[in-house]
Every structure is written in C-alpha cells, then in structure tokens.
Design goal:
This protein is mainly β. The chain is 7% helix and 59% strand. The chain has two helices and 22 strands.
Length: 389
C-alpha cells in the first residue's frame, strides 16, 4: 500500500500543473474512481448554462455549452500510464432585450477539439516524470462571430470547460517528487509548456499575416499533507510564469505571473467525510496594448479570485456514495474593487453498477452578481459511465 501511495501523490501534483485547461473551482464535484485496471474508458457529457441579466442596459444574455469528451487511460505497466482525451463541443450565445423574446441575436460555435496525450512514468516510488502533447486537429477556422463566442466563454465569473476548439501544437514536460515522514507528506513539481503558433484567419482585416503565438508557460508547485486517518490537512501552491503573446510578431498581450493557493481540512469518520476548503488565485502585471478589443483578446479581465466552502461525502453502502458542496466565489479587481460574487450548490451520486463498471451523475446550481448590476443564474449537469478492462 505504501508503494501505491507514493505513486499516486506525484501524479496528482503534476497533473495539476500540467493541465492545458483553465483552473477550475475548488468545489468541483468529486468523481470516485473504479478499482485500478489496465485500461479505462470514460465519457462525461457535460451541460452548462448561464443567464446574465443586465439591469442597466435591460438586456439578457444566455450562454450554454454541451461538451462530450472521450477519455482513455491505459496502464502500460505498474509505473507507466498513457492518457488520451478528445472532445466535441457545441456552444451557444444569445442576447436580447429583457422580456422581449422576438428580438434575439443568436450565435453558435461547434466542432471537434484537439487530441491531448499524456505519458507518465514513475521512475521510483517518489519521483515521476510526465510528457504531454496536444495534436492540432481541432477546428480553428472560426469567423468573427464564432470568435466572439469563444471569447465570451473565457469570462472569469463563469466556469465553462472549453473555450477554444483548435490551437497550435503544444508539448509539455514535467516532473514531480514526493517524500513522506512521520504524519506528513511533502511534494514538489515543475512543468514547462510549449504552445505552437497558428493562424487566426478572421483577423486578416487588421493584419496581413495573422499568425498568433500564444506564448509559453513555466509552472512550479509545492504541497504538504499532514494528519492521520481522522483529521487531514492539505495545502498546495502553484506559481505560473507566462511569456508574451504575439500577433504577426508584434506584442499582443502579456499575462503576468499568477499564484494559486489551495487548502483544505478534512474530517473522516466511518462512512462520512467533511471538508472545509479554500482557494485563492492572484494575478500580477498583465499588459493589454489592445484597449479597443480589436485583437479579440480571450482573457480580458485577469482579476483575483477567492473560493471557499464546505463539502460532505457519505458512503451509503459498498457500491454507492453521495457528495454535496456549498461554496462562495468572490472576484476582485487589482485595486480591490468587488467584481463578482457567486454562490454554488453541488450534488452528485456515484454507483458501482458491477465489477469494472461505474456510473456518476451530478448537478450544480449557481447564482450571483457581476459589478452589482448584472444578475447571474447558472446550471451545470453531467453524467459518466466508466468501464475498466
């Protein structure tokens, strides 16, 4: 059991800092896993919907996304694993006047995304290396309207899983180290992400050669877990440095470094587990030379974020468990002005249908405000059927 424990911890650490997706909330619904098998296939259809009502402009915006990812996990050996992920997404953006259903502008964006591959290998019980690649087969030929939908999906107040479908080729290399002593475990990790350039054809009106270079990323992570079976304290920190983005070799956008702090205190007793958690994301020094938005900057407002809440997991029997959470998310600008406040309620259910077959379903309901004039209402659901061989 100790060897398995050493193997799992660095994998979780490196996957945290190597992901190409945006950072998600700390209260994201847990998905219990099946007994470890040589090959595991799963698909998690995920539906998200947000309604934004602007009281000052008397407009109502509805944004929805339905994503169907495919995941394959293959254990080449007890120390080496391969993971493949690919998805199909449909996103819709609708805006109209409050109470006027006849005057609605609707834009949609749909297509297949890139294929992402990761290879992890445990060199020893305490040291892991990981190599990842993104194969650029996803859709990139977006028109101006579709690009506006893609940009809207990056709203920091919302938590859409997919913003861009196709990007350039990307490669990353990471490593993780873990050491356990007494009642504590410390872990360290590092990762370098190289993202290749690609064409933004819809920007030909402002550039003869709209080749977009998204820049590179370097991440450093550290974590510590303390406690015994009843009480457990976890604390993690991830620092990420971003290089400048360019369009046609001209400065486009520079995202400063950011620091993610994530902590939680869990109580475990028999069939129940309670946890108080918190997460803080700090951004520094972003520069936006394109003040008018002509370059379609996907991340327009890099505000600081605080998430805190409580969660509970109860194991009903040998095959079934239920998980629930309540959390608050506060977003503030760099001059400490309130930008958004959102509360979320989550509930999910896991059931082991048979040996090697599990089913998970969940729902999350959210409400809040942006800048005290835009009301938010959100709904997120998903369902997963996982098989192992």
């Amino acid at each position: 059991m100790q060897r398995q424990y050493f193997f799992i911890v660095p994998i979780l650490l490196v996957l945290l800092i190597c992901t190409h997706a945006r950072l998600t909330e700390a209260q994201q619904l847990n998905k219990p896993s099946l007994i470890t098998r040589r090959m595991n296939i799963s698909s998690t259809p995920h539906f998200q919907s947000w309604q934004l009502t602007d009281r000052s402009k008397q407009t109502q915006t509805l944004m929805t996304q339905f994503a169907v990812p495919w995941n394959l996990n293959l254990a080449l050996s007890s120390r080496t694993q391969v993971q493949l992920t690919q998805y199909h997404v449909r996103s819709d953006f609708q805006i109209g006047s409050v109470g006027d259903q006849a005057d609605i502008e609707r834009i949609d964006l749909q297509g297949f995304g890139d294929v992402r591959a990761k290879l992890s290998h445990a060199v020893s019980d305490s040291f892991l290396i990981l190599v990842g690649a993104s194969l650029p087969i996803g859709r990139r030929d977006l028109n101006r309207d579709e690009s506006l939908v893609s940009a809207a999906l990056f709203n920091q107040s919302l938590d859409f899983g997919v913003g861009r479908l196709g990007e350039g080729a990307a490669f990353d290399f990471g490593s993780g180290y873990v050491h356990s002593f007494s009642n504590a475990t410390i872990s360290l990790g590092a990762n370098y992400l190289y993202k290749g350039s690609y064409q933004k054809d819809h920007l030909t009106v402002i550039s003869e050669n709209p080749v977009y270079d998204p820049g590179q990323e370097l991440s450093l992570a550290a974590g510590i877990d303390v406690g015994k079976e009843t009480f457990q304290l976890r604390s993690d920190a991830v620092y990420t440095y971003h290089t400048a983005e360019t369009l046609d070799q001209q400065n486009y956008f520079h995202q400063g470094p950011n620091l993610l702090l994530d902590t939680g205190l869990a109580y475990k007793k028999h069939r129940i587990q309670l946890e108080i958690f918190g997460q803080y994301l700090q951004h520094w020094g972003s520069r936006r030379p394109d003040l008018e938005g002509d370059f379609d900057i996907l991340v327009r407002e890099l505000n600081n974020r605080l998430v805190y809440g409580i969660s509970a997991n109860y194991r009903i029997g040998q095959r079934t468990s239920v998980f629930g959470s309540v959390s608050d998310k506060l977003i503030r600008t760099h001059d400490n002005r309130k930008f958004a406040a959102i509360r979320a309620y989550g509930l999910n259910l896991f059931c082991r249908v048979a040996t090697g077959l599990g089913f998970t379903t969940g729902v999350k309901i959210s409400d809040g405000q942006i800048k005290q004039r835009v009301d938010l209402a959100g709904l997120s659901t998903y369902a997963t059927l996982t098989t192992g061989f």
